[in-house]
Amino acid sequence: MSEATGNGPSEATGNGPSEAIDDIPTVLDIRGLDVGYYKDLNILQDLNIKARKNQITAILGANGVGKSTALKAVFGFLRPNAGEILLEGENIVEVPTYNRILKGLAYIPQQPGVFKDMTVEENLELGGWTFRRDKKQVRDKIDANFERFPVLKEKRKQITGELSGGQQRMVEIGRTLMAEPRMLLIDEPTAGLSKMLAEEVYEMLSALTARDNLSILIVDQEIRQALKIADYVYVLELGRNKFEGVASDFDDLEKAFWV
User: Fold this and answer.
1) Model pLDDT for residues 184-230, shown as the tens digit of each residue
2) Which residues have CB under 8 Å from 136's CB, separation 6+?
3) Are 70 and 47 in contact (CB under 8 A)?
4) Which of 11, 212, 223, 232 stands 20 to 30 A from 25 (CA)?
């Protein structure tokens, strides 16, 4: 684990995992990002984050440090006042949100986004809206989700609002995967779920990176759980980089997170 400097975060040093991770291609590269909800008031200042291919990268920190703000800026809901957001090498700061989706970026917000009065299968179909006229492609993507999440196949005709919180989160992730994103942003993946259901969601996210060739950037308050599934971790303080490193480096939680 290394501490960030005034020039942005430094890479973790030493031999072993931190060196190996530098050899993995970067999918999302946030460079020197200043962003806030008002032009002259930046919540994030000189933020630097890298999310690598087929890895889970976690952004952690106390409430109000700008973790969710970072995801909103990456997805295009907030316009940065400075800095770059590179998706597979292309600066997407000027790219509208709908085109970022077409470029392989997806976002799952903290608040549940399923349509609770619709069936599981109907929710999944909505994820294929951009190619809705291609019935075979929609069917193939739904079947892929049923293979990915067998419990959803069993409940495909069930009203989504009748599912457990973990299963509803599964539906939401499945619907997002209909578009085959390469980079997935997830804000508080287990917010409001019981410990048992939360563990189910974390296991599901771990499996996605290997099975679906997916890179994931998560924001989380569940520090210990996030460290179990993350490959690389960034800790923010007051809107700036504070620590970063491979997850195994974060053995001193009190120093890094005050927990």
Assistant:
1) 999 998 888 888 888 888 988 998 888 888 999 999 988 888 999 99
2) none
3) yes
4) 223
